[in-house]
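Shift notes (night). Ran YhbY family RNA-binding protein while the centrifuge was going.
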Amino acid sequence: MTDQNRRQRIHELDVTVWVGKNGIDAVVDELSDQLAERNLVKVKFLRASRGGTTTEELAEDLAEAVNADLVRTRGHTAVLER
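Came back to this:
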């Protein structure tokens, strides 16, 4: 997949995982299942999940928890790949 195709695919992805007040632990299993089905998943971090941390820190922690790579963060959204 070329870099341009990958960027287009990421752009067209819909958010399928939302991290809320219960934190990243609440979505680890669901995200892992989605990554097993498709290799790119877009995750939205709601205000309640962020608390005193940044989206980048939460995204890195979540990627580590599901054994995935953090592809990109933008605003309060992250894309993970396995």
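The chain has one domain: 3-81. The radius of gyration is 12 Å.
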